[in-house]
Amino acid sequence: MSDSLSEIEILRDKLSKEKSYRMEVEEERDFLLADNTRLRAELDRIKQNVAVQTNLTTPPIIATAKSVSAIETREKSYAHILSTKINEACGGKNAVCTAFMPYKNVKKLDNGSDSDIWLCGGVDAQVSGYDSETKAHLFSVKLSAPVLSVDVHGANIACGMMDGSHTIVSTTLF
Description:
With 174 residues, this protein is α+β, with helices and mostly antiparallel strands.
């Protein structure tokens, strides 16, 4: 009987530690969300100041248009920047990681297009997929914590989260 009681105490202790760790992770997430809100407000103020100082009627658009530049070496030139913005990706919060996945890997979404699925994960604790040409939202999967990394293998998306956990999202379930 005393062995059962000691096992119960050990389990209670582990549960208490897990609850404490979860609280720490949630507090860190809340801090990141609050700090992100503060930084976005600061960016808006900077945009407004730039517009006032340059007598513009609207603030300048920062890094939203497609742009390409090249780095040239003696033998080859390489694409340096190819960027475009998907508004509200990652719930409008910070996108932390991105990857591309061919449409052919997701049978139910395959549209025969040459474009890819643009995956992103971030502070909103979701991995989302967007059409890389039309920017249309295709899917989102809620995970346990903010997403720090994504990688693609076939029809699977491997995700590493801020709480130390890892998840594999299978697109065969869509």
